[in-house]
Each structure stands twice: as structure tokens, then as C-alpha cells.
Amino acid sequence: MELHNNNNTCTTFDISRGSSLVQDKLSKSRRVRNKSVDFDDNLLYSGNPRLIYINDPRRTNDKYEFTGNEIRTSKYTLITFLPKNLFIQFHRVAYLYFLAIAALNQLPPLAVFGRTVSLFPLLFVLCVTAIKDGYEDWRRHRSDRNENNREALVLQLGGFRLKKWKKIRAGEVVKIHAHETIPCDMVLLGTSDPSGLAYIQTMNLDGESNLKTRYARQETASSVFEGCNVTGLIRCEQPNRNIYEFTANMEFNEQKFPLSQSNIVLRGCQLKNTDWIIGVVVYAGQETKAMLNSAVSPAKRSKLESYMNRETLWLSIFLLVMCSVVAVGMGLWLHRHKDKLDTLPYYRKRYLTNGKDKGKTYRYYGIPMETFFSLLSSIIVFQIMIPISLYITMELVRLGQSYFMIEDKHMYDSNSGSRFQCRSLNINEDLGQVRYVFSDKTGTLTENKMEFRNASVHGKNYGSSNLTDDLSEEHNIRAVLRSRWKLKSEISIDSELLDMLHKDLPGDERIAAHEFFLTLAACNTVIPIVSQDTSSGHGRSESWEDVEAIDYQGESPDEQALVSAASAYGYTLFERTSGHIVVDINGNKLRLDVLGLHEFDSVRKRMSVVIRFPNNTVKVLVKGADTSMFSILAKDTERDDQIRQATQSHLTEYSSVGLRTLVVAAKDLTDAELELWQCRYEDASTSLVDRAAKLRQTAALVECNLNLLGATAIEDKLQDGVPEAIEALRQAGIKVWVLTGDKQETAISIGLSCKLLTADMQQIIINGNSEEECRNLLADAKTRHGVQSSNRKKQNLKRKKNSENGYLDILDDTKSSNVLQRLAGREELAVRAPLALIIDGNSLVYILEKDLESELFSIATSCRVVLCCRVAPLQKAGIVDLIKSRTDDMTLAIGDGANDVSMIQMADVGVGICGQEGRQAVMASDFAMGQFRFLKRLLLVHGHWNYQRVGYLVLYNFYRNAVFVLMLFWYILCTAFSTTSALTDWSSVFYSVIYTSVPTIVVGILDKDLSHRTLLQYPKLYGAGHRHEAYNLQLFWITMIDTLWQSLVLFYIPLFMYKESSIDIWSMGSLWTIAVVVLVNIHLAMDIRRWVFITHVAVWGSIMITYACMVVLDSIPIFPNYWTIYHLATSPTYWLTILLIIIVALLPRFLVKVVHQIFWPSDIQIAREAEILR
Amino acid sequence: MEMDTNGAGTSSAAAGGGGVSTSTSDSSSAAKRNSKKPKYSRFTQQELPACKPILTPGLVITTFTIIGIIFIPIGLVSLSASEHVVEIVDRYDEGCVPPNYSKNKLAYIQSSLTNKSCTRTLNVPKLMKSPVFIYYQLDNFYQNHRRYVKSRSDKQLRSKAYERDTKSCDPEGFVLDGPIVPCGLIAWSLFNDTYGFSVKSKMLEVNKKNIAWDSDKEHKFGSDVYPKNFQSGGLIGGAKLNSSIPLSEQEDLIVWMRTAALPTFRKLYGRIEEDLQANEQITVVIQNNYNTYSFGGKKKLVLSTTSWIGGKNDFLGIAYITVGGLCLFLAVSFILLYVIKPRPLGDPSYLSWNRSPSGHPN
After folding, report:
1. Is A364 helix (H, G, I), strand (E, B) or coil?
2. Do A439 and A735 touch, CB atoms closer than 8 A?
3. pLDDT truncated to tens, each residue of chain B (362 aa)?
4. Where is each P-type ATPase C-terminal domain found (chain A) (predicted)?
5. Nearest to B175 among A355, A407, A975 (CB)
6. Residue A1141 — very low, low, confident or very high, per pLDDT cuts 50/70/90?
7. Chain A residues 730-759 with a CB less than 8 Å from chain B
8. Is A440 annotated as catalytic?
9. From the CA of A658, how many Å to the nearest CA of chain B?
10. Which residues contact A402 (CB under 8 A, 6 or more apart)?
11. B201 Cα to chain A: minimum distance (Å)
């Protein structure tokens, strides 16, 4: 969590104000944020506490009905499965369409298809989905059952006895042994550790693998030790999903004391390094925080799919037109023949036979009604014009694409052992059209593995730059020899500083250095894990049998780095309990009592700890961000001032090379100060209302008039391949914006080191402190760099949209602005340096809330690089929204921490990095991967493939269904508009379900225009996605014209061939069925760019299966079409007709394709030729 | 309030997985972490051996040439086959109405008193080798009308047991005495003109056996199903059936019930199994019973020999020759185009960013 990083110097403005502003904006844009990440302070205690009587479950559950510990993640039971599943399935519009069509068909005057036949597609889809849902639910049932039937030791009848998890109730006392999973949310009462310490691993909850400490209150820990009969009362807040907060208090043995997040263990965590714990259940079952957090992030819809829906609308218009033609034709025909309707040999509206019905009409309701019915029944016949099956096909295709993305070995991170993950199955093709990438910095661009680099102690810089590797190695050994603590990580050490520490001469500098490292070792929340094993691979440890390996576990990587550094200099933290810490100072153990700890928060941006030394002096040790520290330093002597200035210049130096800095300070507390503070601290920490604010006020009591000790600098290492990936993305026409919580200098330095910023760029820096200042800065930047105004920009965008496919149209913003400038007669600026915009969170507050938004937008989009520093999480989402709401361009957000969640959810595509900062980002993301550099492959290779595939898939499916429907339509015009289908009912239904469905799926998954090598070699090929090359309105219309031609050929060639012949309707239908299936499959075959074995099987197999189905259908004597295919197949005309249809139908398409590829080759085409032929 | 996301996100819940709830599977997957590395296979890496067709000039020209070379001979052969077919078509619906009824043809055809006989003379243009097929051709008769096509009961036709299965036949399903066999509009409107042929006063024998498909006779029309109550209703639609002959032997009915695909259609009437010499005069005596006058349909008598492409049809041949010729033409034009304006395939300098005048955009 970046929020917990001491050094994440967020902002100087009031965070709550900033976030509420952004939040307003968000709600304005009607986007509902996922509540699971809502860490707002709205969880503070309200007047309705939850009362838990310890070890008295009956009384606890008496008044309030708390849920038991049984969990149910399954959706259905055996009884509710059918109705509930159907109900849920019919939420999809597609199924309702199916249902409506099937229902229409059941009406007697409309029965076009047989009853069972018409239900087949719906039943098929429903069954497949129900089976899938059923299977998933069965698995959930099974895991629920396993989970519920696990056993735990529960205090019953005076002793701990095994009880099934599902029987556990709130108020019961549970005992957990090491390595067991915790069954419900419990408040710790006691642990095997006398000081009440317990370690838990929260991997299942937030994915962090390090251990966290939890404490039992000393008051309860002792009594639990004494006897088993404990009673007491816990008042806690109502169940909520915030896993980082818990507010409660406990009455125990007449004492009342507060409980916080560090006193509770949550369901799903595992107990480690502790023999046992005893706790009382406060939340059980569905009310546990783990269960409340298991909701999934909202589903996103792909952009291509929304374009597709627009075209579907066109198709529905075609459908309606066709149906109206049929209906009107029917009406006119009936009108013309209205006198003859009883005497026509082929139309009879009345019973004329001598029977009971004589004289009655038969399925004839007058001309207007007949016309209307004709409209409805033609909708039934033409129903597949709306390609409902396309939605199912797309789901399957995306599933297959995801499989290949997951299996891609180039996107496997061997360091963390994490594969690529597809968490959302709806937006694969969006990856091919991304225009903006918003990236978090820490943990995304950088590794978030901190390394201690420099220290400024007492105004003197100690650094690693002058040290060679050999030297540091040597010192390292020396340090290890001396300290007999072995660290997991190795740190290079400045010998000068080390020597100074070991000189025993007194002096300010020596004392400052001592306190400096003491602060590093003590002022943190890191837990040392000491392990005895010496079997680690280090050669030198073998000679030192008593060397103890020490592993620092902590929530913040910065703190781990600092503690490790302190250890390397001989200040080894090796024991921590709730009451004290033990630091090994060059072999001497120093036990320090911790009187109080003010944790880091984003308002104070510092952390302090109050400790009592063995000699009873009390010190407060503080570390924090430079901006927050310099204001609270003591202002006295000149000497101090000098140190301060030296330190400050060091800090600037550090951050200019991209290091993260912290300022360390300390002071002695007098008895009076201590007393006042202790009193207030006690009060504040037991408070239930506004505890955070009260603690903040208390902290201010001691965090003042501090003596500056020095500053630290930690390197945040860049991840592998980040500069290359960014360069490739930029070449691909993707704009990379970095949004970080870091300071401006750090952000710029990281920007430089990852090649985001280059030396030749003109930097526009906007860091105003008021609205007016920001306005001026923006206006200044605009005039200086010649950025066109926003409405001009809009025109430009519009133009861009109009000529979506114009090849040489302005696709690059620099180019477009060039053109416009030339128009504006400002030729001197035509060739100018690329711009980089650097803006800080402070200014963003003023800009995003005001009308300056459009100004910022116009500047930002004409800059090649945008860096936003010191931004709050919600501002990140605000920036994404700025782009998303003003352009049609696809946005992608990538990040790894909880602070990126809002941005990830806001962007069209959210990518999570499974890094060190927990799993919040991954849980909210659509795709998750191990390294930033995989983004290059994800977008340039998989994004490109998926986009090309899905684009073609959609067009092909439109074509496939429309050609079939049009063919039926032409025939209906020859049947007196009576909606007769020459095809058998079954063939009509099977057409889109069996005959032609498999090849499109296979091609959608496996087809590949270019190899990944070519795509990575020419990142600019990615522009095809930006230009909407694979799917756009023009292509749709071309496809539709082609479809029209092909349907005419399909219909008219057999018509001419069998004009005035004795062919019967079923033979004709059979011919059409085969012809259309062969045609659409050959059409597909013509466009396939990579034939693998499976493709051959799918395409030719489909034709074969169609024949097989025809043979089977024609071998059943009860069908009127009995034996048709056998008769046809013996006639050479039949085969010649099919051949002629295929060639004539596909000739124009082939011709256009060839001509286009020769004279107007696309980039993809050229690259493909280069790849295959060279 | 936030819980409703659970209910609404149904489809995505499946994709998102159970989340935190299944801690057992989660921990086991954590244990498996090291084995998570995707196994290399050419399939999973999408590197399967593949054929990647590319439209090179050679391929394009070859394709067009091959199509041309295959199509033109086929066209020629079918055209000549069609030329060899001799076909005589005689429209008789108007000529067979006596002049005094020409204003009121309907009355003529509907009256049971008028003489429906009619004699036509046909001239044989060329030698017609046996067998000569006799067809009747109807025009503007929508045998493919939905109400008509559905108006039959295949079950009833097949077996006596389903005699009463006439639901789909309404309104021609039942009379007072019971079900009509065969029921439905199709059977009801059975064609009932008859033809008698003679050459030089010598009767030509017309073979009316085996004019229907064997499969229909054997499996679709039951040998135990006899006509019943047929054409006994108020309105007589067409031919009557001899109720002592089972349906499987009523070949005219069987032919008729294979409803035609198009409103103009021919149906086989019989065969003349002798050669007809050129310039012979055939006298046809037609019993003009069938009423097409009510809807303005034409009736034609067709005598035709046959060939491997069926009846006389020049379309196939012409179409094949045209397409073949077009393809050859295209092949030649492409050869010329490649000569005039060649483009080196796969030349990176043709890539748009290398071509665009404003140079490297970035």
C-alpha cells in the first residue's frame, strides 16, 4: 500500500477535500465505484454497536440475530436451481429475443417452424449455459462444504473441544494452533506468547506474503493464561468490508480499553510462528470481512462490442424493411385475390367440406390481420438476421484467446512465479486499440524493492557512489562477522560512516549518527523473524554455526530497507513485541520500552515512536517526508541551521537522481511533556469516535521542536525492460502517462531513467497553488508552445472521426497540430521539440474542478508525455476520466497498489501488477501480470491479434447470417409472400448452430495475421487498431454489399438452372442449404491467414457434417424431404450448380481483395509479405 | 447497499471466481505456484506448423487461369448437351377453350356438362430418341405457398394407423363420414388433365409407371393406405382417385405431392418409349379438366428428351463459359498490371510511416 509508505509524500492540500471533489465528478459521470475499495472514513462508529459477550454465545445471539459461521458462496440449491438459473439467464436481452421469437412461433397463425424445432436454439443455449452454471455451482457447493466442515477448537463445557466451522457462533471462544486457518473474524484474547503477540499471514485476504503482527491486549492475555473462564463484553462496529480498520472496545475485568485493527485476526488468514491463539468470535460467516470483500469488480463492455451494437441496429432496420416488404406484398396479394381465396387450388381460407366446421374460416383473420401476421412470421423466418449467436460465439472466442494469453510463456514472471491472468473475459479486443496508458510508478514502473543508498547524517553525506563493488563486499563480510546476524538481503556500506560509528569518541556527530540508526531500527512497524537454520546457500555462514538468519517482514518496503540498513551498520532489530523492542547494537542488547506509536498517515506524513531507554530517559523518534518534517524542527542555533541547509541540499541531490527520501529527527521528552502526552494518548487511543483525528492531535504534542539527525535515500529500482517497453509503446502511437504519488523531482527523475522524458523535450511544469496561478500557467504554456484551443481541437477530433479510415489522415497529434499550425500561419513553430507536461496533484485539484479542465485536456493531448505527481488515488481516476469522457480513445490503466484501484476501474482496460503491494489492484483489474514490460507484448501482440480476430469475427458473423436470411427473402418473394422456407426446419435451425458455427470460433481463436516477432519489430503496426482497420462502418457496408451480391448469386443461379423444371421444393432447399454452407465456409477459408491442422478440421469438417446432417435428415421417412439428397447427388447439374455458385459469389470479393492488396497494401499486408516471403 | 453487486454481477462472478471464500483452493494454488509456469508447446505458444497463404501475383494469376481452364470446357460440354435435347412445348390452356366460352372460361371449366376434349397437333422438329418424357407445365401456380406446402399429413400417407391424423390438413381434413385420405390441399388439387398421343392415327403408348421416386413409393406412401372420402366435399379440386388402389401405386399423386419449388413448374406425366422421327405430326387429345383459369395460370404440354444435364437448359453452359472467359481475361489483365506497375512484395519502404511525406511522426 503506497498509502502506508512513509515516504509517499502525497499532497499538501486537504485530502478529504480533494477526494470529495473528485468523487463529485465521478458521480457526475454516473460511474459507480466498487464499494469494496471504499476506504473513506464513513466506517466510524455510529450509535449502533454490536455487542459480543465473550464466551457467552447464547446471550450474544439472543438479541441480535448474528449470522452463524456457515458460508454459502453457491448461488443455487437443488430446488431453486431451475427457476433461479432461468431467471438469471433471461436477464440477457439475447435470450429474451430468442424467447419472444419462439413464443411468436407457438401462435397458430404464425407457426412457421414446427414447435419443437423453433424451441431448439433457445433450449440449446439455455441448456449449455445451465450446465456450465450448474457445474460451477457444484464446485462452489463442494468447496463450501469442505470449508464448513472443517473443525476448530471451541471452548465448550469448560474445555476446548472440536467443533465444525459452520456451527461456530459469535461470542464463542476459539483456539487456533500454528498453521491453521482462522475460521472467522476474532478478537485476540491471548496467545502462546506471554506478551500477547501473534503472527498471521494474510495471503488469502490481500495477497501479501509477509507476516503481520497482531496483539492480544495485555489485560486479557494474562487472564486467559490463568484460567479458561473468561467473561467480558466487546462493543464493535457493524460488519463492514474494510480489512484495514476495526474499531471496538472491550470491557474486561472492570477495565475498559480500546481495540483496533491490530487486535483482530480475520477469516482466511493463517497463524504462523505462534503456537496457539485464543480469540473471541466477533464476526462469523457471511459477516466476516473476507466474505464481504469477495464481490467482484463491475463488468466492462468492450468498445468494439458497442460499435457492433450500432451495426446490429442497422441489421434490425434491414430486418424490419424486409419484413415490411413481405407483409405489404402479402397484403397486396391478398387484396388482389380476395375474391378467389376459396377457389384457388393453393389457398383456402374456409372449410368447404361437409363437416362440423363447414363455412367457418380457417386461420384467416381478414387482410389487415393477415398482413400483420405475415410481418410477424417473417420476423420468425428472418430471426437470425440479428446475430444473437454472435454473443455466445464471442464469449467462447474470448475464452480461447484468454487461454492463449495465459499460456504465453513470454508473459510469465519467473521471479514472482505469476502467470498472466485474465480476470475479465469481455474486453480482449480492446487491448488492440489502446491509445492512452496511465501508469502508476511505484511497483509498476519500479520494482518497489527498496535499496538503501545514501544517508545524510548531521549534515554530512555518506553515499555509495564512491564505493566499488569489491570494497562493499569486503565491508559486508566485515559487518556480518561483527554482528553475527545474517540478513536476507545485502547492503553496501559506507566504510567512513561505519568507522565513525565504532569510534568511541564523544561528539555531536557520533551521537547524531547513533540516534540516526537507532531511529531507523526502532521507528517502524517491521517484524523481525529470526530463524536458526544455517542451511542457506551462503558459503561463509557455514563457518559460523551460531549465525541467526533474520528476515524483516513489514508492510512497507521502505521500512524494511531502512531496518536492514541499520542492521548492516550494527543496529540490528531482532525482537519486537507490543510493549518493547530489542535492538542489538554491535553485540550489546538494548531493550527499549515502546510507550506509544503514532503510525504513518497521509495527513501528517510522518511516523513517530516514543521509547523509554533502560536509563529511564524517554525519547521520541520521528521519521517522515521532508515537507512535513522541516516545519517541526527546532529552530535555535546557527549550527543547526547549517546542518539543515546541508541536509536540504542533500535531499534535493538525492531526489534528482530518483531516490526516495526521508528525514529523521528525534528529541528527548521531559517528564511533564511525557505525562501530558501519555494522558492524552491513553484517552485518544481508547476513544471510539474520531480516534484517528484525536491521535493526530496527540502526535502533534510530541512531534515538535525536533533535532534533525539526518536523511535517508532509498533507491526504487526500475523494473526490467521498462524503458524498452515504454519506447515500444510510444512508437506504437500509445501515449504513456505516469501518475504517481511521488514528488515532482522524483517523478521527473524516474521519467528520465525510464526514457519517458528525453533531454530534447520541452517541459511544461504546472504546479500552481491557487486557481488563478494554475490558470495563468496553463495559458502561458499554451501561448508559448502554440497549443490550439480546445474547440479547435474538437474540430480536429471530429475530422479525425469522419475520416476514420483515411490512411494518410492525421493520426498523430504532433502531426495534426503541425497541420493546424500551418493553417494558422505559424510556420516557425511547425518543427518544434516534443512537449512534456508535468503537473502536480495540487494544481489538479484546481484544474479538475473548474472549467480549466478543457484547457488541461488540450495541452495534455498535445504533449507527448504527461507526468502527474503527488496525486491522490481518486485524482488518478479523475485524470483517466478526463481523457475518457473527452475522446473516443481507449484508455488503459496499470498499477499495483490499492491506490490504483479507482484508476483501474475507471479506465477502459485495467491492468494489475501482481507485485509487492498486495492484491487489491489485481482483484479490481481486468488483466493481471507480473511485470510492466509484459504490457508491450500484451498490447502489441495479443491486443493486435485479438482485435483483428474479433473484428473479423463480427463482420463474418454479420455476413454469415445476413446472406442466409437474404437468400430466404428472395425466395419468399417467389412464394406469393407466404414466408415459405425451402429449407427444412431443422436445416434452418442448424445453420447457425451446427453447420457454420465451429469454424468461426476456431478462426477467432487461432487465426494470426502476423507473427509476434514482426509485431514487436514494427510497433507501429499497432496503429491498425487506432485506425479501426479491422472493424468500422465502411467495412460493414462493404461486407453488406458483398453479402447482397452473394445472396443474389445463391438465389438466382439455382433459379435459372432449374427454371421450368420438375424440381421440387425440398431438392431446391437442399441445394440451397449445401450451397450456402459451402459458400460461407469457403468465404471464411479465403480470409484465413494461418491454416493449422485444427482450422482444416473445422472448415472442411463443417461442410462434411452438414452433408452428414442432410443425409440423416433425408433418411427419416416421416419428413416430406425424404431421400432428397440421394436423388440430387446423382445429378451432375447439382454439383455444377454448387461450383458455379461458389465461384461467381466469391469472384468480386476475391478480385477486390487482390486489387486492394496489390495497389493499396495495408501495413499489415506488407509486413506479412515481408515475414513470409523474406 | 453494496451487496447488490453480488446479485447483479452474475455473469462476471463466474469469470471472477470465488474470490476469498475458497481459502482451501487458494492455499493449494499457492503451493502449486512453482509449477505455474506455462508449459511450452507449439500449440500454447500459437506456433503450430501452419500454412500461411499469401496472394502473390503468381498465385492470383494461376487461380484465375485454372478457373478459366476448368470452366470453359465444362461450359462447352453442357452447352452441347443442352443443344442435343429436343423439346416441344405447347400451351393449350387458351386454345382448348371453345370460342363461345372464350369470354367465360371459368364457366366452361367448372361446368360438368361441357366437352373438355381438345385435340392439338405437335410437330417434331428433330429426331427424338426414346425415352421421350411427357411433362405438364403449370404457370403462376404457387405450389410453394406456405399454406399449401403444409397442407398434407405425411403420417397419414405412410400408414393406415394414422388415418385420422389430419390436423395439418385443415380445412381439407375431415368430412362428415370421417377423415379424407389423402387429406390436404395438395392432394385435393391433384392435376387431372389427361393426354392421349397418336402419330399417323397410331396410338403412342404412354408409360405411366415409374414416374415417381422409388423412395416415395416404398417408404412415404403406404401400400395399405387406400383413398377414402376423397373429393367428396363440396368443391372438387382436381382428379379423383381409384379407391381400390393403394396410395403407393398412385404415381400421379406421388409426383404431384412432391410440391414444386417455383410457381412455374413441370411435372412428369409419363414416357413415350419409342423414337419420334423428325417432322412427324403428333396428335394429342387432351382432356382439359384442370382449372387454372380461376387464377390465370397457363398450362403447357412438354415433350422432351433428356441428357446428362437434365432437360433443355442453356444457362449452365453459357454461365460456365462466361465465368471461365472472365477469369482468363482477369488472368491476362493481372499479368499486364504486374508488368506495368509492379510492387515488390514485403518491401518495408512501402510501410505507411516510411512513405508518409511528413516523415517520422515521432
Report:
1. coil
2. no
3. 333 333 333 333 333 333 333 333 333 344 344 456 788 888 988 888 889 998 899 999 999 999 999 999 999 999 999 999 999 999 998 888 888 888 888 888 888 888 889 999 999 999 999 899 999 999 999 999 988 998 999 999 988 999 888 888 888 888 888 888 898 899 999 999 999 999 988 999 999 999 999 999 999 999 999 998 888 877 888 889 999 999 999 999 999 999 999 999 999 999 999 999 999 999 999 999 998 888 888 999 999 999 998 888 899 999 999 999 999 999 999 999 889 888 888 888 888 888 765 444 43
4. 922-1162
5. A355
6. very high
7. 730-731
8. yes
9. 26
10. A422, A425, A428
11. 30
Residue A899 labelled as part of a binding site: yes
Q: What is the DSSP string of B28-67?
A: HHHHGGGGGSPPP-TTTTT----B-----HHHHHHHHHHH
What stretches of A177-260 show up as alpha helix (H) in DSSP?
Answer: 203-206, 218-226
Residues of chain A positioned with their CB less than 8 A from the CB of B264: 1059-1060
Positions of CATH 3.40.50.1000 in chain A: 420-444+719-785+832-930
Those residues whose C-beta lies under 8 Å from the C-beta of residue A1095, and which sit 6 or more positions away, are A999, A1002, A1003, A1006, A1007, A1088
Instruction: With CB atoms and an 8 Å threshold, state whether A407 touches B44.
Output: yes
For residue A354, give how far its alpha carbon lies from the nearest alpha carbon of chain B (Å): 5
What does the domain layout of chain B look like in residue ranges?
A: 55-85+308-340, 88-305
Comparison of pLDDT for A292 and A171, the residue scoring more: A171
Contact list, A982 vs chain B (CB under 8 Å): 144, 261
Q: Is A441 annotated as a binding residue?
A: yes
Name every chain B residue with its beta carbon within 8 A of the beta carbon of A1068: 261-262
Residues pairing with A707 in the sheet: A666
Q: Which residue of A has its CA nearest to B176?
A: A355
Query: Would you call A357 an interface residue with chain B, using a CB distance cutoff of 8 Å?
Result: yes
DSSP sequence for A122-175: HHHHHHHHHHHHHHHHHHHHHHHHHHHT-EEEEEETTEEEEEEGGG--TT-EEE
Given a cut of 80, whether residue A688 has pLDDT beyond it is no
Residue A687 pLDDT exceeds 80: no
Q: What pTM was estimated for this model as a whole? A: 0.80
Stretch 1007-1036 of chain A: residues touching chain B, C-beta under 8 Å: 1008, 1018, 1020, 1023
Which residues does chain B have within 8 Å of residue A1118's beta carbon, measured at their own beta carbons? 154-155, 158
Kindly indicate whether the domain formed by A450-462+485-531+548-717 is annotated with CATH number 3.40.1110.10.
yes
The 3-state DSSP class for residue A580 equals strand
Residues 1062-1081 of A with CB under 8 A from B: 1062-1069
Residue A530 sits at φ, ψ, to 5 deg, of: -95, 125
Q: Which of A430, A440, A985, A1009 is catalytic?
A: A440
Residue A136 sits at φ, ψ, to 5 deg, of -60, -40
Look at A1059 and B216 and tell me if their CB atoms are within 8 Å.
Answer: no
H helices of chain B, in order, are: 4-8, 10-16, 23-31, 57-84, 105-110, 146-149, 154-158, 185-188, 214-215, 251-257, 315-340, 352-355
Domain A420-444+719-785+832-930 has CATH 3.50.50.60: no
Chain B residue with the nearest C-alpha to that of A812: B361
Residues sharing a CB contact under 8 Å with residue A863, sequence separation 6 or more, in sequence order: A764, A834, A835, A836, A837
Give the chain B residue nearest A1134 (alpha carbons): B309
C-alpha cell at A473: 563486499
Q: What is the arrangement of strands in the sheet containing B202-204, beginning at the earlier edge strand?
A: B117-123, B281-287, B194-199, B202-204
Minimum-distance CB partner of A1132 among B36, B291, B308: B308
Residues of chain A with CATH 2.70.150.10: 168-293
φ, ψ (nearest 5 deg) of residue A608: -140, 155
In CATH, what is the architecture of A168-293? Distorted Sandwich (2.70)
